[in-house]
Design a protein that fits this description.
The complex is a heterodimer of chains A (127) and B (328). Chain A is 19% helix and 35% strand. Chain A is built from four helices and nine strands, in the order E-E-E-H-E-E-E-E-E-H-H-E-H. In chain A, strand 1 and strand 2 form a beta hairpin. The longest helix of chain A has 9 residues. The termini of chain A are close together. In chain B, the strands form three sheets. In chain B, strands 7-8-9-10-6-2-1-12 form an eight-stranded mixed beta sheet, with helices on both faces. Chain B has a four-stranded antiparallel beta sheet with strand order 11-13-14-15. A three-stranded mixed beta sheet of chain B has the order 4-3-5, sandwiched between helices. The termini of chain B are far apart. Chains A and B meet through strand 4, strand 6 and strand 7 of A and strand 9 of B.
């Protein structure tokens, strides 16, 4: 399984890359692999806000529908509209193909996320 | 395993109950629900409702249209169809469909019918589908549900799922047509759907421990009904939650022709162009602007047009013709 060293992760298998007060978020390799072929991405609403761990989007694969949760609380600034017509991009490269950019409301929440090493250890307990 | 007793035939209540079960019932237990709907078309989570239903037929037959939270294509339910739902802890059972379809296959085995899993989502008898399955994952809980065609009316199914609006296009999930069969066609000794429910429950319980019935309490019912009213029974969820779609519709009238193009996002008209071959007395852009921002729903468009003198844009156009051009 591929874990990008430079990102932070959640136990719900989202990743976030933090730059200043902005966070770029997506789903991990574990998530895309377990979902299987992704056929639809219900993108977050721009200007919508979510608390840490709250559902901000929905991913439909051939196997199941699963929620995507916000790694930290914030307001959605941008969404990756490419995923509307090409949801399979999340299977092809889940770290290159982000889902949304959020403005982080409370930077201290970032400290609660898992680094690559801790996330790898967490994933090892799952299978 | 607790069997949640649910006698409701209201599709909105039943779908709300599933969401409530996966999100709110104590996760110290696993749950099983058998339920039936009055005639209804149940749209997949990310489908465009208008692309899936036969609007006129559904209106005429008073068939309910509902949207579920799991993915996949549109299905038709009636009193000849039985639905089953499991809500369990997600112990790597994610995408393990066989675990949940096994009791159905075993129940049919007891009745002398050979059924098998087919592809990822279906159970078949002699290659024909009688059960479609889908899953929804919420945090550490998993909901698996499926349909079972016992004695459904296929003529009504085909009519209800035959969309009338080919003028609509979207990136939403498209339904796939399958060859279907009813369990009743394969029974050597006829049994009722009630008897089949009993056999299926026995098969579910045979694989589980600490089995009991669960009666929904006052608090449960209140929460489910609230979710029903605020989400599942609303136009915003059933139609408005469709993926963005485009409408292109043309019609010729004695006074000229019209070609209407709409972009609809989250159920609301976000773009509108009207082309045509007619005598205009006023800039059509004003009408296009007036329709932009209005919900793509007959009642809303009709109300919007109440404030507009349609005749100044399209002399001789009938209001109802214009509404149908936009909505059908």
């Amino acid at each position: 399984m591929n874990i990008n060293e430079n990102l932070l992760y959640t136990v719900e298998h989202e990743w976030i890359s933090v730059e200043g007060n902005k966070g770029r978020i997506g789903i991990s390799d574990y998530a895309q692999h377990h979902l299987g072929d992704i056929v639809y991405v219900e993108l977050p609403e721009i200007e919508g806000s979510a608390a840490m761990g709250e559902s901000i989007g929905v991913i439909e694969s051939v196997k199941a529908v699963a929620s995507m949760y916000s790694p930290v609380g914030g307001t959605v600034l941008e969404v990756n509209e490419e995923l509307e017509s090409a949801p399979e991009l999340l299977n092809e490269d889940c770290y290159e193909n982000w889902v949304a950019v959020i403005e982080i409301s409370d930077p201290s929440e970032v400290d609660m996320l898992l680094d690559a090493k801790a996330y790898a250890a967490f994933c090892a307990t799952l299978d | 395993m607790l069997e949640v007793i649910n006698q409701s035939n209201d599709p909105y209540f039943n779908l709300a109950l599933e969401e409530y079960a996966v999100k709110n019932l104590p996760d110290s237990e696993n749950y099983f629900i058998l339920w039936q709907n009055r005639p209804a078309v149940i749209i997949g989570r990310n489908q465009n409702t208008l692309e899936e239903i036969n609007h006129d037929y559904i209106k005429e037959m008073e068939i309910t249209v509902a949207r579920r939270m799991s993915g996949g294509g549109a299905v038709y339910h009636d009193y000849g169809n039985l639905n089953f739902t499991f809500v369990v802890a997600e112990n790597n059972d994610f995408a393990n469909f066989a675990k949940f379809t096994r009791p159905v296959i075993n129940a049919l085995g007891r009745l002398g019918i050979a059924a098998e899993n087919n592809g990822r989502n279906d159970i078949t008898i002699a290659g024909k589908k009688f059960s479609g399955n889908a899953q929804f994952k919420h945090k550490n809980r998993l909901m698996h549900h499926g349909t079972i065609l016992f004695a459904s009316n296929f003529e009504e199914m085909v009519e209800a799922l035959n969309p009338s609006a080919e003028k609509i296009s979207s990136k939403g999930i498209k339904s796939v047509r399958s060859r279907v069969t009813n369990i009743s066609e394969h029974l050597v000794q006829p049994i009722s759907i009630e008897e089949f429910k009993q056999i299926l429950t026995e098969e579910v319980f045979r694989e589980e421990k600490n089995n009991a019935s669960y009666q929904l309490g006052e608090q449960d019912l209140q929460a489910v009904n609230e979710l029903r009213d605020k989400k599942y029974a609303t136009w915003d969820w059933i139609y408005g939650n469709s993926p963005a779609y485009n409408v292109r519709n043309k019609a010729a009238f004695p006074w000229g022709s019209l070609d209407i193009r709409l972009e609809v996002k989250r159920g609301t008209i976000s773009g509108c162009r009207i082309f045509g071959d007619y005598f205009a007395s006023r800039d059509i852009a004003e009408l296009e602007n007036a329709l932009t921002g209005i919900k793509h729903r007959e009642d809303d468009i009709s109300k919007c047009l109440d404030h507009i003198d349609l005749g100044t844009f399209l002399p001789q156009a009938e209001k109802q013709d214009f509404i149908e051009l936009i909505c059908r």
